[in-house]
Design goal:
Blueprint: E1 4-8, H1 17-24, H2 38-47, E2 50-55, H3 66-79, E3 84-88, E4 105-106, H4 111-117, H5 123-138, E5 141-147, E6 149-151, H6 164-175, E7 179-180, E8 186-191, H7 192-207, E9 219-222, E10 225-228, H8 229-242, E11 252-253, H9 257-264, H10 271-275, E12 281-282, H11 285-288, H12 297-302, H13 304-314, H14 321-330
Parallel strand pairs: 1-2, 2-3, 3-5, 4-12, 5-9, 6-8, 7-11
Antiparallel strand pairs: 8-10
Helix pairs in contact: 2-3, 3-5, 6-13
GO molecular function: aldehyde dehydrogenase (NAD+) activity
InterPro entries: NAD(P)-bd_dom_sf, NAD(P)-dependent_oxidoreduct
Protein name: NAD-dependent epimerase/dehydratase domain-containing protein
Length: 331
Protein backbone atom coordinates (compact mmCIF):
# COMPACT_ATOMS: atom_id res chain seq x y z
CA UNK A 1 0.00 0.00 0.00
CA UNK A 2 1.32 3.44 -0.90
CA UNK A 3 0.00 6.70 0.50
CA UNK A 4 0.79 10.34 0.94
CA UNK A 5 1.22 11.40 4.55
CA UNK A 6 0.17 14.74 5.99
CA UNK A 7 2.00 15.90 9.11
CA UNK A 8 0.34 18.84 10.81
CA UNK A 9 2.36 21.23 12.94
CA UNK A 10 5.55 20.21 11.12
CA UNK A 11 7.09 23.63 11.67
CA UNK A 12 6.90 23.35 15.44
CA UNK A 13 4.60 26.31 16.02
CA UNK A 14 2.23 28.63 14.12
CA UNK A 15 2.99 28.58 10.41
CA UNK A 16 4.60 31.57 8.74
CA UNK A 17 5.77 31.94 5.17
CA UNK A 18 9.45 31.46 6.05
CA UNK A 19 8.69 27.99 7.43
CA UNK A 20 6.80 26.98 4.31
CA UNK A 21 9.63 28.18 2.10
CA UNK A 22 12.30 26.34 4.13
CA UNK A 23 10.41 23.04 4.00
CA UNK A 24 9.54 23.43 0.33
CA UNK A 25 13.25 23.68 -0.51
CA UNK A 26 13.65 20.18 0.93
CA UNK A 27 11.14 18.79 -1.52
CA UNK A 28 8.33 18.65 1.03
CA UNK A 29 4.91 19.72 -0.18
CA UNK A 30 3.61 22.33 2.25
CA UNK A 31 -0.09 22.95 2.78
CA UNK A 32 -1.06 26.12 4.61
CA UNK A 33 -4.55 25.42 5.88
CA UNK A 34 -7.01 26.59 8.46
CA UNK A 35 -7.55 23.16 10.01
CA UNK A 36 -10.92 24.20 11.37
CA UNK A 37 -12.16 24.91 7.83
CA UNK A 38 -13.61 21.52 6.92
CA UNK A 39 -14.27 22.31 3.26
CA UNK A 40 -10.70 23.47 2.71
CA UNK A 41 -9.26 20.48 4.56
CA UNK A 42 -11.36 17.98 2.61
CA UNK A 43 -10.41 19.60 -0.67
CA UNK A 44 -6.69 19.47 0.10
CA UNK A 45 -6.72 15.90 1.39
CA UNK A 46 -8.53 14.68 -1.72
CA UNK A 47 -6.39 16.76 -4.07
CA UNK A 48 -3.15 15.41 -2.61
CA UNK A 49 -4.35 11.82 -2.19
CA UNK A 50 -3.64 11.75 1.55
CA UNK A 51 -4.59 8.62 3.48
CA UNK A 52 -2.43 9.07 6.59
CA UNK A 53 -2.40 12.05 8.91
CA UNK A 54 0.03 12.52 11.80
CA UNK A 55 -1.54 15.31 13.81
CA UNK A 56 0.86 17.25 16.06
CA UNK A 57 -0.67 20.72 15.76
CA UNK A 58 -2.85 20.77 18.87
CA UNK A 59 -3.78 18.42 21.71
CA UNK A 60 -6.18 20.93 23.22
CA UNK A 61 -8.57 21.78 20.37
CA UNK A 62 -10.70 19.08 18.72
CA UNK A 63 -11.82 21.51 16.02
CA UNK A 64 -8.37 21.18 14.47
CA UNK A 65 -8.56 17.37 14.36
CA UNK A 66 -12.11 16.45 13.43
CA UNK A 67 -12.14 18.02 9.92
CA UNK A 68 -9.01 16.01 9.10
CA UNK A 69 -10.74 12.79 10.11
CA UNK A 70 -13.76 13.72 8.01
CA UNK A 71 -11.46 14.38 5.07
CA UNK A 72 -9.76 11.00 5.50
CA UNK A 73 -13.12 9.26 5.48
CA UNK A 74 -14.01 10.94 2.19
CA UNK A 75 -10.63 9.96 0.76
CA UNK A 76 -11.32 6.37 1.81
CA UNK A 77 -14.62 6.46 -0.05
CA UNK A 78 -12.91 7.76 -3.17
CA UNK A 79 -9.97 5.37 -3.45
CA UNK A 80 -11.16 2.44 -1.33
CA UNK A 81 -7.95 2.31 0.72
CA UNK A 82 -7.72 2.37 4.50
CA UNK A 83 -7.07 5.68 6.24
CA UNK A 84 -5.38 6.36 9.56
CA UNK A 85 -5.25 9.32 11.90
CA UNK A 86 -2.45 9.50 14.49
CA UNK A 87 -3.30 12.08 17.12
CA UNK A 88 -0.72 13.58 19.48
CA UNK A 89 -2.13 13.87 23.00
CA UNK A 90 -0.50 15.10 26.21
CA UNK A 91 0.64 13.20 29.28
CA UNK A 92 -0.96 15.82 31.51
CA UNK A 93 -4.35 14.27 30.78
CA UNK A 94 -3.31 11.24 32.82
CA UNK A 95 -2.06 12.95 36.00
CA UNK A 96 -4.07 13.02 39.20
CA UNK A 97 -3.19 16.74 39.37
CA UNK A 98 -5.63 17.23 36.48
CA UNK A 99 -8.30 14.92 37.86
CA UNK A 100 -7.17 11.51 36.62
CA UNK A 101 -7.71 8.75 39.23
CA UNK A 102 -4.68 8.20 41.46
CA UNK A 103 -2.84 4.90 41.29
CA UNK A 104 -1.15 2.75 38.67
CA UNK A 105 -2.30 3.18 35.08
CA UNK A 106 -1.59 0.51 32.50
CA UNK A 107 -2.08 1.30 28.84
CA UNK A 108 -3.88 -2.03 28.53
CA UNK A 109 -6.53 -0.83 31.00
CA UNK A 110 -9.80 0.72 29.82
CA UNK A 111 -8.10 4.07 29.24
CA UNK A 112 -10.73 5.33 26.82
CA UNK A 113 -13.60 4.63 29.21
CA UNK A 114 -11.93 6.67 31.94
CA UNK A 115 -11.11 9.50 29.54
CA UNK A 116 -14.71 9.59 28.35
CA UNK A 117 -16.03 9.70 31.92
CA UNK A 118 -13.69 12.57 32.78
CA UNK A 119 -13.67 14.29 29.38
CA UNK A 120 -15.28 17.54 30.49
CA UNK A 121 -12.75 18.09 33.28
CA UNK A 122 -9.65 18.58 31.08
CA UNK A 123 -9.42 19.74 27.43
CA UNK A 124 -6.83 17.18 26.31
CA UNK A 125 -9.05 14.34 27.49
CA UNK A 126 -12.02 15.86 25.71
CA UNK A 127 -10.02 16.06 22.48
CA UNK A 128 -8.81 12.44 22.74
CA UNK A 129 -12.36 11.19 23.17
CA UNK A 130 -13.67 13.33 20.32
CA UNK A 131 -10.93 12.04 18.00
CA UNK A 132 -11.57 8.37 18.78
CA UNK A 133 -15.35 8.61 18.55
CA UNK A 134 -15.33 10.68 15.36
CA UNK A 135 -12.86 8.27 13.73
CA UNK A 136 -15.09 5.33 14.67
CA UNK A 137 -18.11 6.97 13.08
CA UNK A 138 -16.18 7.82 9.93
CA UNK A 139 -14.45 4.45 9.48
CA UNK A 140 -10.97 5.88 10.04
CA UNK A 141 -8.40 3.95 12.08
CA UNK A 142 -7.13 6.12 14.92
CA UNK A 143 -4.12 6.02 17.22
CA UNK A 144 -3.35 8.23 20.21
CA UNK A 145 0.36 8.91 20.80
CA UNK A 146 1.11 10.37 24.23
CA UNK A 147 4.63 11.85 24.43
CA UNK A 148 6.34 12.24 27.77
CA UNK A 149 8.96 14.94 28.48
CA UNK A 150 10.74 15.23 25.15
CA UNK A 151 14.42 16.12 25.03
CA UNK A 152 17.19 16.26 22.45
CA UNK A 153 17.75 18.54 19.50
CA UNK A 154 15.49 17.91 16.56
CA UNK A 155 16.78 17.46 13.02
CA UNK A 156 14.00 19.38 11.29
CA UNK A 157 14.42 22.48 9.19
CA UNK A 158 12.60 24.86 11.52
CA UNK A 159 12.04 24.43 15.24
CA UNK A 160 14.73 22.17 16.72
CA UNK A 161 14.04 22.59 20.44
CA UNK A 162 11.64 20.85 22.75
CA UNK A 163 9.85 22.83 25.47
CA UNK A 164 10.17 21.65 29.05
CA UNK A 165 13.90 21.09 29.53
CA UNK A 166 14.97 24.12 27.45
CA UNK A 167 12.83 26.36 29.67
CA UNK A 168 14.61 24.93 32.71
CA UNK A 169 18.04 25.37 31.12
CA UNK A 170 17.25 28.94 30.07
CA UNK A 171 16.09 29.81 33.58
CA UNK A 172 19.36 28.45 34.99
CA UNK A 173 21.47 30.32 32.46
CA UNK A 174 19.59 33.54 33.12
CA UNK A 175 19.92 33.26 36.91
CA UNK A 176 23.50 31.95 36.68
CA UNK A 177 22.40 29.44 39.28
CA UNK A 178 20.62 26.11 39.22
CA UNK A 179 17.57 25.48 41.35
CA UNK A 180 16.32 21.93 41.33
CA UNK A 181 13.19 20.10 42.25
CA UNK A 182 13.27 17.65 45.19
CA UNK A 183 15.18 14.46 44.51
CA UNK A 184 12.01 12.37 44.50
CA UNK A 185 10.32 14.51 41.81
CA UNK A 186 9.89 12.45 38.69
CA UNK A 187 8.65 12.68 35.12
CA UNK A 188 8.88 10.26 32.22
CA UNK A 189 11.18 11.13 29.33
CA UNK A 190 11.79 10.29 25.69
CA UNK A 191 14.43 11.45 23.22
CA UNK A 192 13.04 13.14 20.12
CA UNK A 193 14.56 10.46 17.88
CA UNK A 194 12.83 7.70 19.84
CA UNK A 195 9.52 9.56 19.74
CA UNK A 196 9.64 10.02 15.97
CA UNK A 197 10.60 6.36 15.63
CA UNK A 198 7.36 5.43 17.39
CA UNK A 199 5.28 7.44 14.92
CA UNK A 200 7.17 5.82 12.08
CA UNK A 201 6.68 2.35 13.50
CA UNK A 202 2.91 2.80 13.73
CA UNK A 203 2.76 3.95 10.11
CA UNK A 204 5.06 1.14 8.97
CA UNK A 205 3.03 -1.55 10.72
CA UNK A 206 -0.18 -0.14 9.27
CA UNK A 207 1.20 -0.04 5.73
CA UNK A 208 2.30 -3.65 6.10
CA UNK A 209 -1.22 -4.61 7.05
CA UNK A 210 -0.27 -5.63 10.59
CA UNK A 211 -3.01 -5.74 13.18
CA UNK A 212 -1.95 -3.43 16.01
CA UNK A 213 -3.96 -1.80 18.83
CA UNK A 214 -6.03 1.11 17.54
CA UNK A 215 -9.12 3.12 18.36
CA UNK A 216 -10.23 2.70 21.96
CA UNK A 217 -7.30 0.36 22.61
CA UNK A 218 -4.78 2.39 20.63
CA UNK A 219 -3.05 4.49 23.29
CA UNK A 220 0.71 4.65 22.72
CA UNK A 221 2.46 6.19 25.72
CA UNK A 222 5.97 7.22 24.63
CA UNK A 223 7.66 6.57 27.97
CA UNK A 224 11.27 5.58 27.38
CA UNK A 225 12.55 6.02 30.94
CA UNK A 226 12.10 7.92 34.19
CA UNK A 227 13.73 11.29 34.79
CA UNK A 228 14.35 12.20 38.41
CA UNK A 229 14.53 15.98 38.42
CA UNK A 230 16.82 16.19 41.41
CA UNK A 231 19.42 14.30 39.38
CA UNK A 232 18.86 16.59 36.41
CA UNK A 233 19.47 19.65 38.59
CA UNK A 234 22.70 18.20 39.98
CA UNK A 235 24.04 17.31 36.52
CA UNK A 236 23.02 20.69 35.14
CA UNK A 237 24.74 22.52 37.99
CA UNK A 238 27.97 20.61 37.34
CA UNK A 239 27.72 21.31 33.60
CA UNK A 240 27.19 25.06 34.09
CA UNK A 241 30.09 25.31 36.51
CA UNK A 242 32.34 23.58 33.98
CA UNK A 243 31.20 26.15 31.44
CA UNK A 244 32.00 29.01 33.81
CA UNK A 245 28.39 30.10 34.06
CA UNK A 246 28.18 29.41 37.79
CA UNK A 247 30.71 29.03 40.56
CA UNK A 248 28.86 26.29 42.39
CA UNK A 249 28.49 22.70 41.15
CA UNK A 250 25.67 22.03 43.59
CA UNK A 251 22.08 22.88 42.82
CA UNK A 252 19.82 24.53 45.37
CA UNK A 253 16.24 23.35 45.80
CA UNK A 254 13.27 25.52 44.90
CA UNK A 255 11.64 26.79 48.10
CA UNK A 256 8.14 26.15 46.73
CA UNK A 257 6.15 25.88 43.51
CA UNK A 258 5.67 29.65 43.26
CA UNK A 259 9.44 30.17 43.26
CA UNK A 260 9.76 27.57 40.51
CA UNK A 261 6.96 29.18 38.50
CA UNK A 262 8.58 32.61 38.73
CA UNK A 263 11.93 31.22 37.62
CA UNK A 264 10.52 29.18 34.75
CA UNK A 265 8.01 31.76 33.58
CA UNK A 266 4.88 29.61 33.73
CA UNK A 267 1.67 29.77 35.79
CA UNK A 268 2.18 28.15 39.19
CA UNK A 269 -0.63 25.64 38.69
CA UNK A 270 1.25 24.05 35.79
CA UNK A 271 4.60 23.56 37.53
CA UNK A 272 3.84 20.15 38.97
CA UNK A 273 2.19 18.92 35.78
CA UNK A 274 5.18 19.89 33.61
CA UNK A 275 8.16 19.31 35.89
CA UNK A 276 7.06 17.25 38.86
CA UNK A 277 4.27 14.99 37.72
CA UNK A 278 5.38 11.68 39.21
CA UNK A 279 3.51 9.79 36.52
CA UNK A 280 2.65 6.24 37.50
CA UNK A 281 2.08 4.66 34.09
CA UNK A 282 3.06 1.27 32.70
CA UNK A 283 3.34 1.40 28.91
CA UNK A 284 3.32 -2.01 27.24
CA UNK A 285 1.65 -1.37 23.90
CA UNK A 286 4.51 0.55 22.17
CA UNK A 287 7.01 -2.19 22.95
CA UNK A 288 4.50 -4.86 21.90
CA UNK A 289 4.76 -3.55 18.33
CA UNK A 290 8.56 -3.44 18.43
CA UNK A 291 9.43 0.01 19.81
CA UNK A 292 12.92 -0.07 21.30
CA UNK A 293 14.08 3.33 22.58
CA UNK A 294 17.79 3.92 22.08
CA UNK A 295 18.01 6.44 24.94
CA UNK A 296 17.76 5.57 28.63
CA UNK A 297 18.22 7.62 31.80
CA UNK A 298 21.98 7.08 31.99
CA UNK A 299 22.53 8.21 28.40
CA UNK A 300 20.30 11.23 28.95
CA UNK A 301 22.24 12.37 32.03
CA UNK A 302 25.57 11.77 30.31
CA UNK A 303 24.50 14.15 27.54
CA UNK A 304 22.99 16.91 29.65
CA UNK A 305 25.59 19.20 28.09
CA UNK A 306 23.88 18.69 24.73
CA UNK A 307 20.70 20.16 26.20
CA UNK A 308 22.62 23.22 27.36
CA UNK A 309 24.44 23.65 24.05
CA UNK A 310 21.19 23.40 22.10
CA UNK A 311 19.72 26.28 24.10
CA UNK A 312 22.92 28.32 23.70
CA UNK A 313 22.94 27.72 19.95
CA UNK A 314 19.24 27.99 19.21
CA UNK A 315 17.90 30.35 21.85
CA UNK A 316 14.29 30.31 22.97
CA UNK A 317 12.08 27.36 21.99
CA UNK A 318 9.71 28.37 19.21
CA UNK A 319 6.48 27.22 20.80
CA UNK A 320 3.17 28.70 21.81
CA UNK A 321 2.83 26.35 24.81
CA UNK A 322 3.65 28.90 27.49
CA UNK A 323 1.49 31.53 25.80
CA UNK A 324 -1.36 29.01 25.77
CA UNK A 325 -0.92 28.28 29.46
CA UNK A 326 -0.87 31.97 30.33
CA UNK A 327 -3.97 32.55 28.24
CA UNK A 328 -5.75 29.65 29.93
CA UNK A 329 -5.12 31.07 33.39
CA UNK A 330 -6.00 34.64 32.47
CA UNK A 331 -9.30 33.65 30.88
Amino acid sequence: MSSNILITGAGGYVWVSEQAEALSKLGISVLQLDLSDEDAVVKSVLQHDISIVIHTASAMDPSMALPLITALSKQKQVNGSEAIFIHTSGLGAFYDKTGWPAGLLRDTDAVFDTEKRLADSFPIRKTDVAVIEHAEKRGVTSFIVVPSTVYGQGSGEWNKLSIILPLYVRASLSAKAVYKFPDYSKVAGVHISDLTALYGLIVEQFLRGESIPSGREGYYFALAHDIFLGEVGDHLASELRDRGVTTNSEARTYSDEQAAATSLGVPVQFVQMLWDAGANIVAEIPRSIGWKPAWDKARFLQHIGDEVQAVVDLGKPKSSLVDSLLAATSG
